[in-house]
Amino acid sequence: xxxxxxxxxxxxxLEPSAHRYEAxxxxxxxxxxxxxxxxxxxxxxxxxxxxxxxxxCTLVDQIIKVRGERARYHGPGLNDAYVSSxxxxxxxxxxxxxxxxxxxxxxxxxxxxxxxxxxFNRFLSEPEAEGLPCAKQPWLGxxxxxDLMAYHRSLAMQFGSGRLLGAIAAAQPPTAQGIQWEPxxxxxxxxxxxxxxxxxxxxxxxxxxxGRGMLLANPHxxxxxxxxxxxxxxTVPGQLDVYGASLLGVPGVLIGFNQNVAWTHTVSSxxxxxxxxxxxxxxxxxxxxxxxxxxxxxxxSTLSIQVLQAxxxxxxxxxxxxxxxxxxIISLPGAxxxxxxxxxxxxxxxxNETLIAQFLGMNTARSMKEFQDVFDTxxxxxxxxxxxxxxxxxxxxxxxxATANVGTATLLNWQKGLSDASSLQATLLRSGLILLxxxxxxxxxxxxxxxxxxxxxxxAMAPRLGRRDVVFNSNDSHWLPHPSxxxxxxxxxxxxxxxxxSVRTRxxxxxxxxxxxxxxxxxDGRFTLEELQTAVFSNRSxxxxxxxxxxxxxxxxxxxxxxxxxxxxLAQACAVLAxxxxxxxxxxxxxxxxxxxxxxxxxxxxxxxGPLFSTPFSATAPVSTPSTLVPAPASDPDPVLNALASAxxxxxxxxxxxxxxxxxxxxxxxxxxxxxxxxxxxxxGVLNLVNYNNSLNSSTEPPTPRGTVLNSRTALTADGYVINxxxxxxxxxxxxxxxxxxxxxxxxxxxxxxxxxxxxxxLPLYSALEWRPVAFSPxxxxxxxxxxxxxxxxx
Length: 795
Fold this sequence. Notes:
Mean pLDDT: 94
Radius of gyration: 27 Å
Keywords: Hydrolase, Signal, Zymogen
GO molecular function: hydrolase activity, acting on carbon-nitrogen (but not peptide) bonds, in linear amides
Number of helices: 19
Protein name: Aculeacin A acylase
Shape: globular
CATH superfamily of the largest domain: Aminohydrolase, N-terminal nucleophile (Ntn) domain
CATH topology of the largest domain: Glutamine Phosphoribosylpyrophosphate, subunit 1, domain 1
EC number: 3.5.1.-
């Protein structure tokens, strides 16, 4: 029996019933679903249904990707992209791994995920599903629990194997021609999206006006594709009451709060989620390698995929892939599979099957102690830092992301290789890869007592810090989780210590530590909820606050620069910067000039003394250094004025006058509209980060259109700055004596369906830097609810 109906207040799913799946969904403004059920099975059922309403096409597309079936439905793809993707995912074997791990999941996780799959498939059977943009596609169909679990594994491996899909697909043994083999080069080692990051603040009793905990969550994620965040509220009386956002297809809440604890995450981009290895091959045997002087044979797997042809037929393509005892063989740029060597890797999240158990444990935690215990016992965090606060005013930081544990000798040998900037170790490190020696057991991962699996660091080895004032992170390593406190002595694979922080990290730290009239927390140094909201959308630029006045003084004295022998007048640009207050607000002139000016220096100039700063970085003053504009040269051309001149010319090529307000050239498309936006890039040192994401991994959504790129450093195009990524789910909350008060914004909105009235419906709010009240208590939900609730049942 299946039922779907609107019901009045007198109806209740909590009444005795024989239905296996039951859920009630109440929608508040902007399409936020509040799902109530009498068990986790029902909660997952309602959440899966609501998610399918908004993003069925995206999730099923990702399931097809992980199954290795994109070429079957879409053809080979540009430059055989779908063929490569299919072979890579088949070689990883995520579906088989998921199948083997289903019954190792805790009963609560099986209930939640089983309900989610049932609810998702239920929506696909409804007449409303005919309005999906992919409704007529042959690949749209029901999911299985194995599908969902395999997809969760792919998410966990986002910063590991997910970066090497092209390298996995390209790895074929060299062809024997006498004794010569030709290497097969990898098309790429994929970098994470530049805008994939976050800011996170947890404020404790000593820094809040109410004396209880507060939280600021500001993840920077894409607004298109599979890495969008989606907002929901799940309630199971006596067991679960959690509000927040999740990645599409992930049951429960990843960033959010319950009655007692609030938490957020930032990408732990500095940590090692995998290690690559170079193998010494046995002469004449390209699929055998030496390990501790003994020959080992690679394992092999022959895989076949179906590829859609132009005439509609399917063609079978077969390849054989190889693995070492570490993992799959890969072909790296400039380091292919030859007669002498091959490359392989080990992924710290390859056997991470506790992702949902981790977040369900966090969702149901009744205290900070219970919340912390989940990190010690489940250990399912894949690639993020965590900041948390509780209603008693405690705050906590940890980088518990899965990390390789290697010995001291391994680290010393690797660091020795880095001393030569031209070495393969140094070259690959610039792509974020750590290369070890695969021919010796010395470089194997080392078991640690208490770790989830042998070879990972244990919870006791993870950086963590508990306080009563504040902890924060903005994607730099664990070293500076507080403006004036450091965590040191951890493995370099956990992240660098005693190194310069990004200008965005420094802006966060500066706003947290300043206590003054007009500062982020005011003269009393204690944040109110309104001050927390204002802080994240203040659009203050750290580079501008440090350098703008000095640059203006320099260009007022000598209002001319030179670019490739061309003299450029700077008086107008200088006047614009002089009258600008250093904020990247949509209504202000100055941000575009400053952005292009800063981009005239190498990215390393923001973290060291050199062409921009004269005072070098100091580990004892990480928030205030490097600093101070370099002095003008005595006689040579001034690089500061020349960079400003280059900025003027770059804007001219884009048809942008220097006095143009930012909002006229920085915007997000919404159907036929251009929504003006505030916000800055990473190099601008602005919390409210915006950017263009060109790494969309979708076969169903076209990339956001934009004109010819004129400056890749700033994403400036002939159309201006087109935005489709950055601040996404923004949450500010405070614990009160009687509950929780929260404000939120999902900048692009809940649904990915362009035909829906809710498509990107929160962009106008974001443009105006306005927040929505969060309906969390039953009274708040009742007062905000629009329309009749949905009462879902299924046997």
